[in-house]
Design a protein that fits this description.
single chain; alpha/beta; five-stranded mixed sheet; about 45% helix; about 20% strand
Length: about 180
């Protein structure tokens, strides 16, 4: 819980063409740089896939082949992403999925896996909000009256998570205050 008290971090999210990193591509990667609790910079890029896009993936994230056909390749996109995040702690929602895809692609490119501290907000949300019917990011956002329009696009999901983190932090601090 106290990991939410960080003031400097990067929130990141990816969109993919499917669920299996060995067969699917990262289509989009986005990040928000947060310094002293405030968003100070953004990073977002579409990525040209090596494989065909499935209709299922296009339905979920709305990313079409026309959108990515002239996008940078994965190596260029990940290089820029790594430069953006530097050594900052990384926050994500169900972040193991995103980290797994990023690390798999880094290794395929002959690079090192991420060494940044990684914080998954999902278990924090489950602990602070056990009464919710599920803990999807949009469910948490709706609970806190945070806009969910554009969900399943990486930058929109990063912004949504930034506001969720603020609300979860307030929830945590309120529970701490009530215990004293």
């Amino acid at each position: 819980m106290k990991r939410l008290l960080l003031k400097d971090f990067v929130i990141f999210d990816i969109e993919t063409s499917g669920f299996k990193k060995e067969y699917c591509d990262i289509l989009e990667i986005s990040a928000l740089k947060v310094i002293n609790g405030e968003i100070v910079d953004t990073f977002s890029t579409l990525i040209k896939p090596k494989n065909r896009l499935s209709p299922e993936a296009m339905r979920v994230n709305g990313i079409t082949y026309d959108m990515v056909k002239d996008a940078p390749n994965i190596g260029y996109a990940l290089g820029n992403f790594l430069e953006f995040v530097a050594n900052n702690p990384l926050l994500g929602y169900n972040v193991g999925f995103d980290k797994g895809f990023v690390n798999y692609n880094l290794v395929k490119l002959g690079q090192k896996e991420l060494t940044n501290e990684i914080i998954d907000v999902l278990p924090i949300a489950k602990k602070l909000l056990p009464h919710l019917p599920n803990h999807k990011q949009t469910t948490i956002a709706n609970f806190f009256n945070i806009k969910t329009q554009g969900a399943h696009r990486a930058l929109n999901d990063c912004v949504m998570l930034y506001y969720i983190c603020q609300k979860l932090l307030a929830e945590y601090q309120n529970k701490q205050w009530l215990m004293h």
